[in-house]
Amino acid sequence: MKKKNPPGDKPKVTRKEDPGYPVIRFRIEIDGDNWKVLKQMRIPKMTLPKQPALPDDKGMGHAGFWAELVDDKDKLLYRVFKKNPLTGSREVVGEKGSFSRNSMTGQPVILDLLVPELKGMSKLRFFSDTGTGAASDKKLKAAERPGAARVIKEISVKAS
Question: Are 18 and 47 in contact (CB under 8 A)?
Answer without folding.
Answer: yes
